[in-house]
Design goal:
675 residues, mainly alpha
Length: 675
């Protein structure tokens, strides 16, 4: 017996060692670029940095200022303005004024709206009930009543009126374009790159050129919002039409239907839920843009937040920010409920019969009309009673709490802020701003070539060349430094929480509603709480950018981890891998493309937030844009900064897209000995 065991032992082959993997061409190029960057910084730092002080202008900036003056002088006589831009502005103003006069304030008399607060609450509550269900109707009534208690009912209705105007105009443009893109492949090929470009741009970029063409005010805000909010509804409408099964379309064609009949009777009804989801996304984008458009004199809650941020009034900022959050929640819940009701399967699961629902709709409509009539005839129902205003109490309470935190938590908050600023932000920003520009251009071009080849290298070099031509290289590097640091933290959070969600359904069920809620809030809102904690610094903008971008990175990472085949994970566990080894050796490598996509989306979100962070002390391109709005002498520089943001966003977007598109290497499997 011992001899047999010995023989079996001796014939077993020795385990083959896995061959050492040599570094690939990409790794060598990236490492060489990093070494060249560090050597160039150490040897030549502080030279050829293209630094431009905040008060100085280049010849290009002065030319843009002259162009601004020329537009102002020739606006009334130039045919393009006379027959195109001015009529368009007047038409948009007319539509916006209809809703402003109806819900916010009339320009005559006591400046009371056509429908007072009570009628607005009743009418919007009934609309929410008709589009969704009783829950969202009660939520709508409660939230709009709370606006009155905050003392911000007028500002909230101004914002709501502008959002409503922008969404209606967006649907008039977006749904037909989405239908064309869904039906005709050539239209989709043409329009998709345009939509990609539009969704890459931060919100700030739209404001300066539109203010130049359409002046400041509601019209410019609505037009900017339409441009910003159109891509989601166009994309989802086209997707809903293209997603219809081919056999269903063939069955319709076999019955002899024409193209228009197929569209009306088959494609649009089957794509209805997807289209309503697009309306939801466009509505949330519209709210985010309308609040930021306060910088070009859009009335509403955004102006309250901007004034509060500029004066560091945390209490007022929190009060108005809370209103924006609540309005976002209402709009999200109503449009989400409408999309669920649009699902054909929802009709089979309804607890209330159609007849009963129609009866309830009729009764509640009558009640809403009574409330509208009271708001048109009774002063107490037209203007929210001032005796019920608890807004000052909220402002004072928040201001006191902010002062307490700054006094008692300053040891932690200031120490943490200064440690991160001096230990990470300043050195990395110095690495970008003090490196000679030609070395940095070469390093980025080599990195782009490693990721995507010559075409990407040429594109990134062209983008950097435009930034240099605009005279804003140093400010662009300041913005890039904050963006990259924040994105690195976002990816750490994305991996930690995304892996936890992807590996545990329970964790996913707990976290996903919180992440969804975080994505409904406009960018402005994230600045407010951190202003109270850390003061007006670039650190505040970076922290706000991290919190703003983390939900999308976490969700993308979680979906990528969850999509990995359970068979692969089970095989790794069966071979004796620990949970840590499964994550680091199997799941993360196989989800590398998903992680690159998460980094891409995180970068875009962070860039948008870091630019907005100029309102709380962040420098860079965002400061130039805001300064251009405030000082006419800096308008040209602000406009150039907006263009620089565009090309910086294109550069970051294309490089991370190239990383996401790289094929994933197959994971080598170790062979185990047969027993």
């Amino acid at each position: 017996m011992s001899t047999l065991v010995q023989e079996r032992t001796t014939v077993q082959p020795a385990p083959a060692r896995a061959p050492r993997r040599r570094p690939g061409k990409r790794t060598i190029l990236l490492a060489s670029a990093a070494v060249a960057w560090l050597v160039g910084f150490l040897v030549l730092h502080g030279t050829s940095t293209l630094t431009l002080p905040a008060s100085e202008l280049t010849d290009l900036h002065r030319s843009l200022n002259q162009f601004n003056a020329w537009v102002a002088a020739n606006r009334a006589d130039n045919p393009v303005f006379l027959y195109v831009f001015t009529p368009l502005r007047a038409a948009v103003d007319a539509v916006a004024n209809v809703f402003i006069t109806t819900f916010a304030a009339s320009p005559t008399g006591l400046r009371l709206p056509e429908i007072g607060w009570l009628g607005t609450v009743g009418l919007l509550g009934w609309t929410a009930f008709a589009a969704g269900n009783a829950r969202v109707a009660l939520l709508t009534v409660a939230v709009f009543t709370f606006f009155g208690l905050q003392g911000l009912f007028l500002e909230a209705t101004y914002t709501f009126a502008l959002v409503l105007t922008a969404v209606l105009l967006t649907l008039l443009v977006g749904i037909p374009l989405g239908i064309l893109a869904g039906v005709y492949g050539r239209v989709a090929k043409v329009i998709t790159p345009v939509l990609d470009f539009m969704q890459t741009l931060p919100t700030f970029v739209y404001l300066a050129p539109l203010a130049l063409v359409f002046l400041i005010g509601p019209a410019s805000a609505v037009i900017a919002t339409v441009i910003y909010a159109a891509p989601p509804v166009i994309r989802l409408t086209a997707h809903g039409i293209r997603a219809i099964p081919e056999n269903t379309r063939e069955a319709s064609d076999s019955l002899g239907t024409t193209g228009m009949q197929r569209l009306v009777t088959l494609q649009l009804p089957m794509a209805r839920r997807t289209i309503v989801m697009g309306i939801n996304q466009s509505t949330m984008a519209a709210l985010s843009m309308v609040t930021i458009a306060a910088l070009i004199a859009a009335p509403g809650l955004g102006q309250v937040v901007v004034r509060a941020l500029q004066s560091l009034d945390v209490g007022t900022a929190v009060n108005a920010g809370l209103s924006i959050v609540l309005l976002a929640i209402v709009l999200d819940r109503v449009t989400t409920a409408a999309s669920r009701r649009a699902d054909p399967a929802a009709a089979r699961n309804r607890r209330v019969s159609r007849r009963t629902r129609y009866i309830l709709l009729g009764i509640t409509l009558a009640l809403a009309l009574v409330m509208v009539q009271l708001s048109r005839t009774m002063l107490w129902a037209a203007a929210f009673p001032k005796d019920l205003n608890i807004g000052p109490a909220i402002v004072q309470t928040v201001a006191a709490a902010s002062q307490w935190m700054q006094t008692n938590l300053s040891l932690f908050t200031v120490s943490f802020r200064e440690a991160v600023t001096t230990g990470i932000l300043n050195p990395f920003q110095s690495l970008l701003t003090d490196t000679p520009f030609y070395i940095l251009v070469a390093v980025i071009a080599v990195a782009a070539y490693a990721l995507g080849g010559w075409k990407l290298a040429a594109l990134t070099t062209a983008c950097l060349g435009v930034i240099i031509y605009l005279g804003l290289w140093s400010d662009s590097m300041v913005t890039l430094a904050g963006t990259l640091v924040a994105t690195a933290v976002v990816m750490v959070l994305g991996i930690i929480f995304g892996v936890a969600m992807g590996r545990s359904e329970r964790v996913d069920q707990i976290m996903r509603p919180l992440l969804d809620a975080g994505q409904t809030m406009p960018a402005f809102v994230y600045l407010v709480p951190f202003l109270g904690l850390f003061g007006a610094t670039r650190f505040t903008a970076i922290i706000a950018g991290i919190i703003y971008a983390a939900p999308v990175a976490i969700k993308i990472t979680a979906d990528g981890i969850a999509a990995i085949s359970p068979t692969v994970v089970e095989a790794a566990v069966a071979s004796g891998s620990t949970p840590w080894q499964v994550i680091t050796k199997v799941q993360l490598p196989m989800a590398r493309q998903t992680l690159a996509l998460a980094a891409n989306q995180g970068l875009i979100y962070v860039l948008a937030m870091v630019v907005v962070g100029a309102l709380v002390g962040a420098g860079g391109l965002g400061y130039d844009v805001v300064a251009g709005f405030v000082q006419s002498a800096l308008f040209g520089k602000g406009l150039a900064a907006g263009v620089a943001i565009v090309f910086l966003g294109i550069l970051l977007d294309r490089m991370t897209q190239a990383a996401a598109a790289t094929p994933v290497r197959k994971i080598p499997t170790t062979r185990t000995r047969a027993t």
